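Re-running the complex after MR caught last week's input typo. The corrected sequence lines follow. Everything else is unchanged.
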Amino acid sequence: MVSDTVSYTGRRIEVDALSAEARLVERAQAQDETAFEQIMNLYADRLYNYILRMVGNPADAEDLLQEAFLRAYQGLPSFDGRASLSTWLYRIATNLCIDHQRKRARRVQTVSYFAWEDEEGEPGEWEFPDTQTPNPMESALNRELQQVVEQAIGSLSPKLRTVLLLYDVENLSYEEIARVLNIPMGTVKSRLNHARGQIQKQVEAYLRGESK
Amino acid sequence: MNCTRYERWLWDDLEGRLSVAQAQELRQHLQACPHCQRRWEAAQVTYQALRTLPRRRAPEHLTQQVWARVQEASARKPAFAWWKRVALAPALGVLAAAAWWGWLAVNSEHGGVSGTATASQNADNWVEIHEQLEVADWSPTPTPSYFITTGYTR
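Corrected-run output:
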């Protein structure tokens, strides 16, 4: 049951949120379409950003996002709640992205996050967060640096990119990532170290004026 | 100086995973090592950049598009999918075997001594094969201790 009283501990809030999510899943499993729409609304942005960074193309990302929710809807009856809903959804999305990359593996392509066009045919850009961060380090980060990081992410192998995005961008824990990818936690940590090392190298080169 | 060790600590430090003593040791090393100091700055900037990457909103009309796909998928769902046909094959096999055993049992009841002997011989053969398989599965090379501990006497 979700507590009606104000909860002052993070743990309590987390437990309440989980049980609210479990009830939402139960309703969706009972063919309650509104509940499934709520699930979509909850996860659409997160999954879209993750998929977009995985495949690097908005049209493909949109298609894969729809496919992910379709599969989630079809798989809901067999979802037993052993994994959390988010872990399950990220697993579906990851599998779709991997399949997508396999299908396109024969084509030599460079993933560019700045290559797409928006509705008016103009070059597409990332939307930056509205909130200004109070941290001087964060406010010092400019668009150029973020582009360097985005491009560095795009240059990672799919295996490394998946782990980096799930941990550093989507804020999943080691345990959750291990469950999403069905790999040992040690492998998650090792891939994360490699991915971070590669990104860091490119950022260091940028800071030293060697790139861009 | 062992820079490799301290480089490994950079991200742990950013995530607050180092002990107080380790963090202090790292700070001392960074003051003395320009190479690691550069690495530290790059790690810090990367760490912050990853956490403040711009995010896009999911496309509008996503819900409608997903429902359209759901309907489309249910419309083109074959009534009898290929995997159901594959799954049906063993079931039919079991059914055929049961029918054969049933036929054999009925024949043995009405068919006299020879029929009964055939059925029991078959059963014995099956038991023997089954036991051989079990022994082979449990212990490919049975040793004396195997017979003592398992009590297997045959």
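None of the earlier attempt is carried over here. Chain B touches chain A through 31 residues (CB under 8 Å). The helical segments of chain B are 3-14, 20-32, 34-51, 62-75, 82-110, 112-138, 144-150.
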